[in-house]
From TrEMBL:
Origin: domain of life: Bacteria
Listed InterPro entries: HATPase_C_sf
Protein name in UniProt: Histidine kinase/HSP90-like ATPase domain-containing protein
Length: 335
């Protein structure tokens, strides 16, 4: 029999392992941990997809495991069996690890470099996640059409940096109308976080993270904050209560008090925290992205709820665990 090379043997071992795992669900209580040099090796799920209702809980369990283990050990993340990572999942993981870095309670988290392959390697590298775990920040390439994940605050300097990059590298190819819609939606999305995610925090420390990328002929933008979440604030507003009292369909959502229903309520009333129409998740600029864009889609994840709007309608669902913040993602066709 012909001798196999070391690379071939490793590939066969990896393929065999993946086939054995096919169809298996991620069990956070049975995650393989390998203790090496006082480090804990934590294996990531085979798919990190926040949009998939059968996979999104796995991401939250994975993040919870990282946070829990990092309290007592250094953590090495192993992506050997991970086939796919979505932009929303990548943003969520990045933000959580970045927040952990600011805590004196957590140990270092690193990525097992040789475990990264294919789409997962490309996405993690471009996002700057690997650099983050090495205590470095990936700088924006002024000539690139994509940017690494950016962390911002209420002061807004980083927000201007994102806007400038989009205008210089993306908007130049758009029609005036596309530029108007996109510019309004970007400003609106970040404005929501700056004004609303941290209603009781008077300081400038209101962090948010943004990811922006081009896939095929569409621009995808997602932003995440660690604020109190839409479900925690929507019913506390007097103007919302007035609308609810005069509309039975809104009252039904409010009485339910599920996080997904409360996100839908925020879309129905057209505002989140102020009476200014331009600052609402249900306002015109963001809705236009869905209704006027082929394959347009708006995703809102807040605490335990999920709301997905597209041209044909919308769906909602609730998670078992909370993402402990709000993540908003939308896309617009640019070509």
């Amino acid at each position: 029999m012909k001798n196999l090379s070391t690379d071939s043997l490793l590939w066969q071992k990896r393929t065999s392992h993946n086939l054995r795992r096919k169809g298996k669900k991620y069990n956070p209580n049975k995650v393989p941990f390998n203790r090496v040099l006082n480090q804990m090796m934590l294996e990531a799920p085979d798919s990190l997809d926040l949009y998939d209702p059968e996979k999104n809980q796995e991401i939250l369990d994975f993040i919870e495991n990282i946070e829990k283990i990092a309290l007592t050990h250094k953590v090495v993340l192993d992506f050997s069996i991970t086939r796919f990572i979505s932009a929303a999942a990548l943003l969520l993981i990045y933000a959580k690890l970045d927040a952990m870095k600011s805590s004196a309670l957590h140990n270092l988290v690193r990525i097992k470099a040789d475990s990264l392959k294919g789409q997962v390697k490309s996405a993690i590298t471009k996002s700057g996640l690997k650099e983050l775990t090495l205590n470095r920040r990936l700088e924006i390439n002024p000539h690139s059409r994509t940017i690494p994940i950016i962390k911002g605050s209420a002061r807004g300097e980083e927000f201007e940096q994102v806007i400038d990059h989009i205008q210089l590298n993306i908007l130049k190819d758009l029609t005036p109308e596309q530029e108007r819609v996109l510019g309004s939606a970007v400003s609106e999305t970040i404005g929501n976080v700056k004004l609303h995610a941290y209603p009781d925090d008077s300081t400038d420390q209101k962090p948010w993270w943004i990811i922006c990328s081009i896939i095929d002929d569409s621009l995808y933008l997602a932003i995440f904050d660690l604020g109190v979440g839409i479900p925690a604030t929507i019913l506390s507003k007097s103007w919302v209560q007035r609308q609810i009292s005069s509309a039975p369909n809104l009252l039904k959502l409010a009485v339910s008090k599920s996080d997904a229903d409360l996100i839908e309520l925020s879309m129905r009333v057209g505002k989140t925290q102020t009476k200014e129409e331009k600052h609402g998740l249900g306002s015109a600029s963001i809705k236009a992205l869905v209704h006027e864009t082929p394959n347009g889609s708006l995703w809102i994840f807040s605490n335990k709820g999920m709301y997905h709007k597209h041209r044909e309608g919308f769906e909602t669902s609730n998670f078992k665990s909370s993402i402990e913040g709000t993540l908003v993602q939308w896309n617009i066709q640019i070509r």
